[in-house]
Structure formats: C-alpha cells, structure tokens
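Researcher: Good morning. I'm working through a list of sequences from a screen, and I'd like to move beyond sequence-only analysis. For each chain I'm collecting a predicted structure so we can compare shapes side by side. This is the next one on the list. No need for commentary yet; just the structure.
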Amino acid sequence: MFPQLAKDLNVPYRTIGTYVMFENRVIDVLGRSLISRAKKNGVKGVRHANRKEMFKDEPNIPDNIVGGIYMPTTGVCPPYEMTIAVAESAVIMV
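Model: Good morning. Structure tokens for this chain:
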C-alpha cells in the first residue's frame, strides 16, 4: 500500500527491511506469536531470525540479543516530502 502511494505521489521510497530484536529466550518465544499475527495480517516474508542470522546483516548488535523477527517489507520515505505530496494531492481533489 505505502510503496504504491509513494510511487503515485512521486515521493522517494526505499524498502530496507528491519529486525525487532529480543533480549531473552522468553520474549523470543513470545515474539514468534507476533510472526503468526503478522502473517494473518498479510505481512509478506516475515520470519524468525536467530542471533547468528541477524549478525550477518548487523554485526554491531548488542551481546544480550538472542533472536528476533525479520520484516523484509519495511520501508522508508522522507516524511516531509510525503506530507506535502499528500496535502497537494488533497487540494487537487477538492
């Protein structure tokens, strides 16, 4: 949804992926239920990642991190540009 909006409004958008990191095994196990919920909500590619996998992408993770969730569809765009583009689009539609 958001990548298409950015494209339609000619706003830069970049898919970067992200990790939600967990500090202990209990939270890591509970975090797996979030994966199930994300998949039910249509989040594509979301999966569990262990410390070793995360370290390949981010070698500076803190020592206390045991695992996490990887979400490959996370993206970023310049918020001011998006706000201005949405406002301009709304004015045109009125």
